[in-house]
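User: what does the whole thing look like in 3D?
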Amino acid sequence: MTVTETVEEGLFQTENPIHELNRMLVRYDLTPNQAKVYLFLSKIGVKTASEISKALKIPRTETYHLLSTLQQKGVIFSVFGKPTKFNAVGLEESLEILLNNEKNRINELDAGKASLIKLWNIIPKYGENEDTVQDNKFQSLQGRNSILVKLEQMIKESKENILVLGTEADFKRFYFTEFTELLNKTKSELRILTDHTPDTPHIFESVSSKKVKKIEDKNREDFCFIIKDDSEVIFFISNNKVKDTLAVWTDSQAFVTTLRSLFSLMWKKSHHIDETDAESLLGSEITYEHRLREIEQEKMILSYLQENFKILETGDNKK
Amino acid sequence: MSKTDKLKNSQKEELKNLDILIIDDNEQITKMLTTFLELKEHKCTIANDGKEGLSIIKEKRHDVVLLDLAMPEFDGYSVIKDLEENNELKDHKIIVFTASTITQEELDELVTRGVTSYILKPIDIDILHSKLIEIANL
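Assistant: Here's the predicted 3D structure for the full assembly of 457 residues, as structure tokens:
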């Protein structure tokens, strides 16, 4: 084995940034082995299928299949000759191609939605009627995306109120998604309970500070739920960053009411994020300025009354 | 003076002695304001929280209701919301009487929803009195 071959193998066999890149490319609809072949060609340059198979320790038949798929996706190309050699399109261009492929797929799915529903409605329903199923519904949601879709749906449909309890880490996970944008735009009454760090104002910069309070209980790091209109809730079961996030959606009144009561209790005990400690001492709803104005009002009434009673007393004395 | 003028004047006379409901959690203000308004020969009813105030509003119609916004638990906004939901907000002369930091936009929105007027604390007590008379006679 030559030195170059050793480097080629080592680069793709040990733990290094290539593996991180590999994991990231999988999110762009490449399989781990497709990503591996693509990155190999990107970094090493023109190679035959046989050389790729040998360096990456992937069976030759599978290598041919992978190369064919990657060519179809448009991220590698073949160089004419015997044997055929392959090379990769630049990473930036490839990402653009993969992204557009995904966008087109979504557009096609979206376009097909109406026909699918139309077809579905043509087929008569043979089972029990929908209105006879009144049981509490539970839906398990695994992974950021499926949770995000449900959250967005809940916020869009909300007509009364949205109550959110979660740490900043939870919110950061959904930052730059439609979820935070929808939260900012919602016309429902919004209340957010979260822990407080210097990042908080940045995360909630578009949300009125009156709607955000800081959680006093620091033991609630893994506690996160969102209630919509007192009728639906999503609560996170596994809120671990390393593992895939797991949440449960339910419209069970027992669950919703319990979490609603918990939220109300915590809301009452907590203070707005822009309050100083002195203001907090005066009560969560009452600011320092507010109290000053009240005192000023008390003084005004009092001085009027004092003045008035003096006049009355003087009048009585004269008599 | 014609009979109609006499009748109008007598009606105006009646509305000088107002039946006022004060909903405010600040007991100092409610007590002193009551003393002041009683000196001016008005009748006052006090509620120190929103829930109590709402039940008094529903029991009896007052000439004017002075409503504080920031109160613990059931605040002034909740009182307005409840009346609004039951289509009763416009049946009462509700004057928001608040020391809260509130924007003009928010105040205008309250008026659009059906609140009669607003008075921001602190206010000169004589001006408050004239405003009460003026609004009650609207």
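In plain terms: The two ends of chain A are 124 Å apart (CA to CA). Chain A has three domains: 3-92, 136-281, 288-319.
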